[in-house]
Amino acid sequence: MESYLLDWANLLLRWLHVITAIAWIGSSFYFVFLDSSLVPAADPKLRAEGVTGELWAVHGGGFYHPVKYAVAPPQLPPHLHWFYWEAYSTWLSGFALFTVSYIWNASSYLVDKSLVNWAPGAAVGVALCFLVVFWILYDAICQVFGRRKNGDAIVGALVFLLVCVAAWLACQWFAGRAAFLLVGAMIATAMSANVFFWIIPGQRKVVKSIEAGEAPDPIHGWRGKQRSVHNTYFTLPVLFAMLSNHYSFLYTHKLNWVVLVLMMFAGAAIRQFFVMRHGYKLGRNRHPAGYALVGVALIVATAVWLTPAPSEAAKAPAAAADYAAVSKVLEQRCVQCHGAQVQMKNVRLDSPDAVKLHAQAVYQQAVVAKTMPLNNATQITEGERALIGQWFQAGAKTP
């Protein structure tokens, strides 16, 4: 029953997390587009009011005319919309999902005893430290170097180095699947913390100054814009890390941390292409195709690098793949979690009828995706996976 309830919690939290993430990322992408697409206001009245940019757009049968005040409008409207619950809801739902999926069963999902054989509580504690320590170091980098000459380049280089170190440590200490997700979660935590500690508080100070009839300090707008830009470059790397746990060929590689860094860097480069593309259309910068080409080239190179070598075991005659041989593999590698005592995901593999019922899932998880056994805790071999594959392809016959 516990497994069944956890599955429902996982499903509903994942659904909620995707919905809130779409809302947050969608609004973030829109405002990056908006900032990059603004042109000087044509109406002298708007310029006199302090409007520094405007955009005309058509969508859904209507015309829209957003304008931007660099520091503050001459008068605040009675209703001012704030963008922050999208970020907070995304982090809260994501952390809840991480708790249900990984922390609740840390011994199975976080711990890889071939790397570090630590207690589940210790693994959870270190995992949570990744979220906190990364934010502290990232925030310190931004505050120390952010306002210096060439500060953006310095911050970018140091944050990239910090991500590389974190990816290496995570892959040395945790199961590969969890390590990839953890690196994504720590960056996502920094994104939400940017909103919580800097962007929204800065905007509140600006509003408070306007309400008091004082001139707002432009530093709040500058700092908020800086952190918002960081968030947009973090987005695609985080999304890759969150999706990667479905593809074992990524996180089971012996240099899995390099795979993660390359793919995240590719995502950031592709995001740079889209950000600069808006400016290119207005003649503000040269065509950013080079960034997209770098990102795509890295993805292709990584895919080529990870191409699996042909397995000699896979060339064994299909006649050897009968149910008797397969059942021995299942008994040794799978029944611990899918037998009479425990039925993870409501799957049993301790009888011919049960194996026949779940043959498709066994083939997909153990042979195609190679996500089971989880973290390969029972040390199934490539030859045994090939045996199951041959049995399935021959018709998955049982007595």
From TrEMBL:
Asked if the record carries the keyword Transmembrane helix, the reply is yes
Q: One Pfam family, please name it.
A: Urate_ox_N
Q: What sequence ranges are listed for the domain Urate oxidase N-terminal?
A: 3-305
The UniProt record lists the keyword Disulfide bond: no
Q: Which residues cross the membrane?
A: 12-33, 83-104, 116-141, 153-175, 181-200, 257-276, 288-306
Q: Which GO terms describe its molecular function?
A: electron transfer activity; heme binding
Record keywords? Membrane, Transmembrane, Transmembrane helix
- Protein name, entry field: Urate hydroxylase PuuD
Organism from which the protein derives: Ramlibacter cellulosilyticus
